[in-house]
Amino acid sequence: MQSRAPRTREEAVDALVEVATTVMSNKPRELQLAGAPACVLLYGVNGAGKTTTAGKLAFRLRGEGRRPLVVAADTYRAAGIEQMVIWAERAGVAHFEGASGADPASVVYEGVQLARKRGHDVVIADTAGRLQTQRNLLEELAKVGRVTAKALDGAPYESLLVLDAVLGLTNLVQAREFNKSIPITGLALAKLDSSAKGGSVIAIESELNVPAKLAGVGETIEDLAPFQPASFIRAIFKR
């Protein structure tokens, strides 16, 4: 016996939420922060929102009683280090930065060692921005992951791809290419405000089985929240 068709807009939205969530990733959405120290690497193209996401995440984790160390490893972008330091200071957390033009992988390695020495329980690293078409430069980011694994003695860590929610299905192309070089463990949606729907995350999760874990929903340092699939999809259709 077939179920009856939705009769109201609310019922239609409920049905869409049910269908959409079934094709999204079933992997855990909580950040995996069990290491000593734990580590979160943030990847993405320039302008996606890596630096702001790093600052917001540091602020959030500090509020949960953790002792984050922010590592400014975006050493190739003009003012990248300075911007990360500003966000770390806004969050009230310690920071470590490499010299302009330094190898991002070595900066992250030194940051992990410093965190262990000083008792920080989580490292948040803002890595160098790369376009998904720059295959040779993406390989440099893959090196960051390998070096981080070495610094953590093989312990698992988070590799989050930060996506600008405004860009639509361009994000699917980015996710595909980044995931070829870097084993992405999760997504962080930036700029997910009233004007950006971010629906491309459904396609990304369906194709790559990579779960969205964080959502930046505003411009202030408090505006970072765990990603909730049902609430997110419902909001798309209610706007």
Characteristics:
8-stranded mixed β-sheet; alpha/beta; 239 residues; single chain
Structure description:
Helices cover 44% and strands 17% of the residues. The protein is an alpha/beta fold and 239 residues long. It has a single domain (35-238), classed as P-loop containing nucleotide triphosphate hydrolases (Rossmann fold), CATH 3.40.50.300. An eight-stranded mixed sheet has the order 3-2-4-1-5-6-7-8, with helices on both faces. Helix 4 (104-118) runs parallel beside helix 5 (135-151). The longest helix is centred in the middle third of the chain and has 17 residues, at 135-151. It is globular and about 60 Å long.
Proportion in β-strands: 15-25%
Quick one: how many beta strands?
A: 8
Question: Termini separation (Å)?
Answer: 33 Å
Q: Determine Rg (CA atoms, Å).
A: 18 Å
Question: How many domains make up the coordinates?
Answer: 1
Helical fraction equals: 40-55%
Q: Name the structural class.
A: alpha/beta
Overall shape: globular
CATH class assignment: Alpha Beta
What is the residue-averaged pLDDT? 87
Largest sheet: 8 strands, mixed
CATH topology: Rossmann fold
Gross CATH architecture: 3-Layer(aba) Sandwich
* CATH homologous superfamily grouping: P-loop containing nucleotide triphosphate hydrolases
Order of strands across the main sheet: 3-2-4-1-5-6-7-8
